[in-house]
Design a protein that fits this description.
Structural class of chain A: mainly beta
Helix content of chain B: under 10%
Largest sheet of chain B: 6 strands, mixed
Order of helices and strands of chain A: EEEEEEEEEEE
Oligomer: heterodimer
Number of helices of chain B: 0
Structural class of chain B: mainly beta
Radius of gyration of chain A: 13 Å
Radius of gyration of chain B: 13 Å
Largest interface: A-B, 24 and 24 residues
Helix content of chain A: under 10%
Shape of chain B: globular
Strand content of chain B: over 45%
Number of strands of chain A: 11
Distance between the termini of chain B: 41 Å
Order of helices and strands of chain B: EEEEEEEEEEE
Number of strands of chain B: 11
Largest sheet of chain A: 7 strands, mixed
């Protein structure tokens, strides 16, 4: 099975711009979660989507949003970028048939905000 | 509040020198505890899932164990290619999100 794929892999934006990141989960996986990873804060949960519905949300401002399509692919959007949004954004998928299913991560999108 | 603490922050070993990494957690209830390995610039790679105290899992030179308050990742006779950051995460009974520890950065010298 192909793993989780994320596009683009690298992105440079300037403050105030907005960005959209894409994630394709492992075939058959219906849950997609997004995380932000920075050297100072580590891995922090953004949100989780299951069957096109946001099932859980972390403690991030409303500038961070996401959606999931009927084929389980997911996108996350960050509006009005700030310097502190520079990070590795990771997507993880799981079958989600049971709440404790293991999540499998993609390679991430590295975002640099100038 | 749910919390995950990993120690040590960094560990340097000689090739063949066995050691253990610790993950202490505080959650109201545990659905599962996960270990991941992360290489620089890459996404975390799944290693183990543990669900209940007393459970143990092994993979090559790695062995993960779980108690009611902590988990250990034992590395036996490590090789340089085991160098990576090892992340521990817990999934609480309440809510769906996983809480990650800060990780242990392991360096194995030849």
């Amino acid at each position: 099975k192909a793993g989780v794929t994320q596009t683009p892999r690298y992105l440079i934006k300037t403050r105030g711009q907005q960005v959209t990141l894409s994630c394709s989960p492992i075939s058959g996986h219906r849950s997609v979660s997004w995380y932000q990873q920075t050297p100072g804060q580590g891995l922090q949960f953004l949100f989780e989507y299951f069957s096109e519905t946001q099932r859980n949300k972390g403690n991030f401002p409303g500038r961070f949003s996401g959606r999931q399509f009927s084929n389980s692919r997911s996108e996350m959007n960050v509006s009005t970028l700030e310097l502190g949004d520079s990070a590795l954004y990771l997507c993880a998928s799981s079958p989600a048939d049971r709440p404790q299913e293991t999540q499998y991560f993609g390679p991430g999108t590295r975002l640099l905000v100038l | 509040e749910d919390q995950v603490t990993q120690s040590p922050e960094a560990l340097r070993l000689q090739e063949g020198e066995s050691s253990s990494l610790n993950c202490s957690y505080t959650v109201s209830g545990l659905r599962g505890l996960f270990w991941y390995r992360q290489d620089p610039g890459k996404g975390p790679e799944f290693l183990f899932t543990l669900y209940s105290a007393g459970e143990e899992k092994e993979k090559e030179r790695l062995k993960a164990t779980l108690t009611k308050k902590e988990s250990f990742l034992h590395i036996t006779a490590p090789k340089p290619e085991d160098s990576a950051t090892y992340l521990c995460a817990v999934q609480p009974l309440q809510g769906q999100d996983m809480r990650f520890g800060a990780g242990t950065r392991l360096t194995v010298k030849p």
